[in-house]
Amino acid sequence: MRIHTAQLLKEPIGSTRHYKFQEIEQPSGIEGLSVVEGQVTLLKTDKGIFVRGEVETAAEGICSRCLKEVSIPLSFRFEEEFFPSIDIVTGAPLDSPEEHDLFTIDEHHILDLTEAVRQYSIVHTPIQPLCRPDCAGLCTQCGADLNSGSCKCPQMVDPRWEPLARLKGR
Fold it and tell me: How far is Cα 73 from Cα 115, in angstroms, rounded to an integer?
């Protein structure tokens, strides 16, 4: 997910490039993601390169109910501006942007999408992933997987619900 941008940086503001990418192996620096594929549009701005992209991948996780490993499909769009660290004409180092958490283009004019994809995939990964929407989870007493069938534990009723149970019996 590395794009050489030297030629685009030399062109006038408003110049664009379109790229498709597919990382078959797990991208270095991104743990837990499978194949990453997508497309990006690069737009030359007055300060750098504006990137608009669409990515599809899958994150590895654990079901929050039954604790089985699960592959979570992710599909997201992102927009970020990348700033060059070296002037394309003179080769002189450029001042860093005021904000230190912005994306930069390295000294060889390579724009690396890896960190942007990693950050956006974290944001789009569900906090409590499920193996399936109707996952029954685990028994709270014996730990049996309720997706495989019911367990032999006696039904425990929370004592706080007893007044409602009495009303239901009437």
Answer: 19
